[in-house]
Specification:
mainly beta; four-stranded antiparallel β-sheet; about 0% helix; globular
């Protein structure tokens, strides 16, 4: 089971840092992705980070503003979100791919958290 934290209400231009932790397995073995879903919209892959070499991928919508990182000593994956926009408003989920593929396609991820709400509004 994955657990996300760090969501909340922030003004446009502000920042938030989301955290993803696991209660039953070490995250450093898996590819970890962050996904988001806004009401009435499809689930969107945001970034992922691999377990092997720590390579990352970012969707164009967040490139240059969001940063995904791992802290293996804390068994936690972070999503630093800067310059937030109202369009970033969504429920954010972290997910783990046990096959350690590098993909932003949500269907490849087996383990999911419950999500954390991010609202960007003035």
């Amino acid at each position: 089971q994955l657990v996300e934290s760090g969501g909340g209400l922030v003004q446009p231009g502000g920042s938030l840092r989301l955290s993803c932790a696991a209660s039953q397995f070490p995250l450093d073995y898996f590819t970890i992705g962050w996904f988001r879903q806004a009401p009435g919209k499809e689930r969107e892959g945001v970034p992922y980070i691999t377990s092997s070499d720590g390579s990352t991928y970012y969707a164009d919508s967040v490139k240059g503003r969001f940063t995904i990182s791992r802290d293996n000593s804390k068994d936690t994956v972070y999503l630093q979100m800067n310059s937030l926009k109202p369009d970033d408003t969504a429920v954010y989920y972290c997910a783990a791919d046990p096959l350690r593929r590098g993909s932003i396609w949500w269907a490849l991820y087996e383990y999911w958290g419950q999500g954390t709400q991010v609202t960007v509004s003035s």
